[in-house]
Amino acid sequence: MTKARQDRVLGILIRRGDWVTAATIADQLGVTPRSVRSYVTAANARVPGGEAIESGPAGYRATAAAPAALRAGSEAESGTPRERLHHLVRALLDSSDGIDVHSTADRMHVSSSTLEADLGRVRSLIGGSELSLERSGSRVRLAGSELAQRRLVSRLAHDEMEEGAFDLDALRRAADAIAIPSEALGAFKSDLVARVGELGFYVNEFAAADVVLHVAIAADRVALGRPLDAVHGDPEPTRARFAEVVGELTNRHFGVDLGHGDRLHLAALVMTRIVVPGSRDEPQIAPDPVVLSAVRAATARAAESYLVDIAHDDFTERLALHVQNLVHRAREQAWSRNPLTRTLKSAYPMIFDVAVSIASELAATLGVPIHDDEIAYIAMHVGGRLERSRRAETMLTATIVCPGYYELHELLRSSVDRSLGRAIEVTGVETRADPDWSQIESDLVLTTIEPPVRFAGSDRIVRIQPFLSDADVERVSAAASRVRRSRRLGRLRAELARYFSPGAFLRGLDASRGAEGIIRELGGLLTAQGVIDQDYVESTIERERLSSTAFTDTLAVPHALRMTASRTAIALGVSETPVAWGDARVNVVALVAFSESDRAAFQTVFEQLVEVFGEPESAQRLVRRGTDLSSFLDELAAVIDG
């Protein structure tokens, strides 16, 4: 039984916020339901006199004590491999002359052979960075620039955080775990955000905590006599202002005087992470022409490929300012974390895929790598631009049935508009006591009188009071959600019947082949049917390397960024045993080959397929009962029909 798996169980239940079956959790962890029960028991033992996870007929659910149990877990086990690794890295970072293997092993109460194994893990950790381990006899030294060493400290802190958590409490725990002073983090962040606002700039709150971590690391390193070298030349006025602010606040909250090099370095982080491009005082800041040109081209191509309305000057200019900062971060290898990455990927897969397309082209044009968290920021820009048109598409029409009596129907319409105007649009009001119900064609009917018996069971008819109550608002909202979902999944059912290919279904995936091997296997089925060629398969693998297509805890949807298939088709792989896919484990892989002529189907197939598999119980039903394509489609239809 491992603490990490107990933590994962807690994390899954906290994120879901509802009942989750033992089988669903077991599938995500790759263990048996019996193991899940033991993890739950161990997690509950962290809460004296209470429980972090409650059990019931529907499975398990996190209680209010679950977050505290998760925090307690981070403090519980000492001497674990992770803790030893962090102690060892910290010792290497603190000593410019290096450490002696034997004496360090004695201090950590482990054997020299164990410490040698831990040094191997350190080498793996720093692989691909600017750091290396230099050895002379029993003495080992961490070699590399001061900036590279600070990046290593930051990486360790991020590794300590719970999955998806990036608040100040998580940051404090992570900092404490690697011996970085954390007491003043909250006050420093508040003062820094306030000062940035006073200087007339908009603030990215998502990135503020990450920058504060870097300030704490800098203060700690300077206190150890490890400052950054001074920067040559005079900085631009804005950077100089931020440098002054950072120096003043670091002295106030951490009691450390930063040198010129540290102040300017941290000022650059503030400018490229916390400060949103453009300010209240200077909103017309112009992006770099090279970056703007690259963004304009990438946006135009994505708009054409995905049929989305984003190719507008105001959008491209704002995104170009963001990308300009992204390029600075990439060159510094100072990536900006995004706590919404996982949510954006699972809730808005099509928007995220548009962002992947844009990021792919920008990475090639500008010569910088763009990671998932940075792609998520691009997705936020895309989603913000599309929100207005998406809202119009999901707006439902409604007819109010309210027999006339003075201005009662007018008051009711006003109440509906005020309480539900963002979700529905009232297109008609029937004031007769005997309206022709069969002629009412709106999506919803909100009625103050009982409908005829033959209409009474309709999901689109909602009984409300003449004076709209909170309960009425909730019932109408629930009915609107049901109608939208039925409409979306109805489109999906119609589309999927066309696109699933009878000869492209695999039951039982070979997990040892990995994601790329499975893509090649499924792609081979469609290649044999003449739907795609080998170039499409390679393009799908290239897309997978950009960002994992595991959009839910059960489903991966690999696909290429270019819609070059001869026709749209889906090759399906199903496995009762989850297979590793990026950082996730999935049971279903749907390789989708899109053709240029079916571009309009992309959003329907893509988003709604992800929605179906976003419901754990539905996903497990499909996995267990879908033994062949026919039974899989029957179960899918049953799930869609509810």
UniProtKB/TrEMBL annotation:
<dbReference type="InterPro" id="IPR036634">
    <property type="entry name" value="PRD_sf"/>
</dbReference>
<feature type="domain" description="PRD">
    <location>
        <begin position="286"/>
        <end position="392"/>
    </location>
</feature>
<keyword id="KW-0762">Sugar transport</keyword>
<dbReference type="InterPro" id="IPR050661">
    <property type="entry name" value="BglG_antiterminators"/>
</dbReference>
<keyword id="KW-0813">Transport</keyword>
<dbReference type="Pfam" id="PF00359">
    <property type="entry name" value="PTS_EIIA_2"/>
</dbReference>
<protein>
    <submittedName>
        <fullName>PTS sugar transporter subunit IIA</fullName>
    </submittedName>
</protein>
<dbReference type="InterPro" id="IPR016152">
    <property type="entry name" value="PTrfase/Anion_transptr"/>
</dbReference>
<feature type="domain" description="PTS EIIA type-2">
    <location>
        <begin position="498"/>
        <end position="639"/>
    </location>
</feature>
<dbReference type="InterPro" id="IPR002178">
    <property type="entry name" value="PTS_EIIA_type-2_dom"/>
</dbReference>
<dbReference type="InterPro" id="IPR011608">
    <property type="entry name" value="PRD"/>
</dbReference>
<keyword id="KW-0677">Repeat</keyword>
<dbReference type="InterPro" id="IPR036388">
    <property type="entry name" value="WH-like_DNA-bd_sf"/>
</dbReference>
<dbReference type="Pfam" id="PF00874">
    <property type="entry name" value="PRD"/>
</dbReference>
<dbReference type="GO" id="GO:0006355">
    <property type="term" value="P:regulation of DNA-templated transcription"/>
</dbReference>
